[in-house]
Amino acid sequence: MPISAYSYEMASRIFAGLILIVGVGILAVVGLGGTGEDDVDTVASADTEAALQQTAPPEDAIGDAPTTSIGEAGPAEPAFPVPENYGPRLGLVNLDGWINTEQQSIDDFDGQVLVVEMWTFGCFNCQNRIPHTQALYADLADENFDIIGVHAPEFDFEREIPRIEQAVVDLGVTWPVAIDTNKENFRAWQEGGRRFWPRTYVVDQNGDIRFDHIGEGDYEELEQTVRYLLDNPPEPTGAS
Amino acid sequence: MIDLLFEGTESLRLPCSWLLVIPGVAVALSGRRRAVLVTAVFTTVAITVAWLRFSGFWPLGDFTLGDGGTSTQIILGVGILASAFLAWKKDTAATDGLSAGVAGLAGAWGWIPCVGPALGDVINGAGREPFVHIPGTIAFIVGLFIPFIIVAATDVVFPAFKEKTSNQVVTKVGFVLMAVVGILFAITQFDDLANELARRSTF
Predict the structure, then answer these.
(1) Taking CB atoms and an 8 Å limit, are B65 and A16 in contact across chains?
(2) A-B contacts (CB, under 8 Å)
(3) Which residue from B5, B127, B195 is facing A26, i.e. has the nearest CB?
(4) What average pLDDT does range A153-175 have in this prediction?
(5) How many angstroms separate the first and last alpha carbons of chain A?
(6) Across the interface, do B10 and A30 touch by the CB < 8 Å criterion?
(7) Is pLDDT above 80 for A126?
(8) Using CB atoms, which residue from B9, B59, B62 is nearest to A195?
(9) Of the ranges A10-19, B62-71, B172-181, B188-197, which one carries the lowest mean pLDDT score?
(10) A197 close contact with B: CB closer than 8 A
């Protein structure tokens, strides 16, 4: 074998060996649960709780709109940047019903800060969001705030309404759930071919989308966006 | 970047990944004689399609959402069957590579990823800055395909392993699995396979 061919083969083996070691290492760590993924829920929930406590205004401040009037000191400059405005939300149409609410339309939630979350009960990452959403829902129960989970099935077995109702109970989803079996709204809200579970929006009091996040994570930013909008409601536009 | 690698590997156990992993297993077994080549082709095609989808450049929509039309699925199914048949009949690098590429294209199109925190950052960012998030997409898919990459690397490091495991039985099993994937695609029922697997592993 010529020396160059031999060198090439040796280099290939060394490179492949490194890949092998790294690959086996990753598999071993993941297989042994060493990435801490199993602890994500607990740890992240604790983080969210801490964040909620840190960012929560004093009890007596809740409900006080930060309106500024002449002669009064205005509200402190918000540290959180003004959330981007992505334009007006769409409606929720041709639903197969609602769970956990008497409301029958998203329009019934107008005027509130609203979290709209596209999810499906079998989705691992959607399940991971639930404790965070639950913490937010509980903490802001007395605020001008609500949540709608839009249940859009990924797989056929997630289309059956009794299964959805059971999953809502089992997973501890206590906020209103709109059943979007045909995914008409799931598609319409996520135009442009980038459609994923879960996807979370925050809609302001005027019906404009002010937060848009795909997947798990960004819990603190979600919380801050909601709080910002509660504390700094946009000027009413007269249309939503 | 390392978190994406780990998240990709973690998602191997989730049903949402199986639409991509099942064709990968078929490719790895049927192309066992050329593990490095088929793994490289399958991974590259999957990364490309995934990035196009994350960035919003993908023109065919999501077939599991009823987009893209059944005709495209049928064409892909026939393509999987035809390219696998070619690879079976003509044992060449070109036919194995073609078969891996078509399977990668089909699998990556059918795949709806589980969007964890790390991949979420990539997908959210790719909508605004597509090119910045190419490395992240690569890291996630490489993490997802770690088992196939390990097998390919083992072949290079220990040629005796390849000799022992590249036999007719393994290849035949791979082609049968590939044929099943192709047929399910052609009759637009491939997502039903993942559906059934998911149903059995969830509530």
Answers:
(1) no
(2) 128
(3) B5
(4) 90
(5) 77
(6) yes
(7) yes
(8) B62
(9) B62-71
(10) yes
What is the rounded CA–CA span in Å between residue A41 and residue A12?
A: 42
Q: Which residues of A touch B159 (CB under 8 A)?
A: none
> What is the spatial distance between Cα B10 and Cα B16, in angstroms, rounded to a whole number?
12
A42 touches chain B (CB under 8 A): no
Q: Do residues B10 and B153 make contact, with C-beta atoms less than 8 angstroms apart?
A: no
Instruction: Find chain A residues with C-beta within 8 A of B195's C-beta.
Output: 155-157
Domain count, chain B: 1
Decide if A71 touches B, using CB distance below 8 A: no
Amino acid at A213: H
- Could you give the CA distance from residue B21 to residue B114 in angstroms, rounded to a whole number? 13
φ, ψ dihedrals at A225, nearest 5°: -65, -45
Q: What is the ipTM of this complex?
A: 0.76
List, in order, residues 6 or more apart from A73 with CB less than 8 Å away.
none
pLDDT digits (tens, 9 = 90+) for A76-102: 555 778 888 888 999 999 999 999 998
What the block records as the tokens of B152 is 């390919």
pLDDT category, A131, cuts 50, 70, 90? Answer: very high
End-to-end CA distance of chain B: 33
pLDDT confidence bin for A134, thresholds 50/70/90: very high
User: How would you classify the pairing of strands A98-99 and A209-214?
Assistant: unpaired
Tokens found for residue B14: 């989730």
Lowest mean pLDDT among A5-19, B5-19, B160-174, B187-201: B187-201
* Dist CA B174 CA B84 (whole Å): 10
Residue B115's domain spans which residues? 2-199
Task: Quick: pLDDT tens for B81-131.
Answer: 999 899 888 888 999 999 999 999 988 888 888 888 888 889 888 888 888
Q: Is the CA virtual torsion A169, A221, A140, A188 positive or negative?
A: negative
The answer to whether A20 contacts B154, with C-beta atoms less than 8 Å apart, is: yes
Is residue A116 helix, strand or coil? strand
Q: Which of A125, A193, A197 sits opposite B58 (nearest CB)?
A: A193
B39, B63, B195: best to mutate for the A interface, most A CBs within 10 A: B195
pLDDT of A167 strictly over 60: yes
Q: Are B154 and B17 contacting, i.e. CB atoms less than 8 angstroms apart?
A: no
pLDDT exceeds cutoff 90 at A147? yes
Specify the DSSP class assigned to residue A104.
-
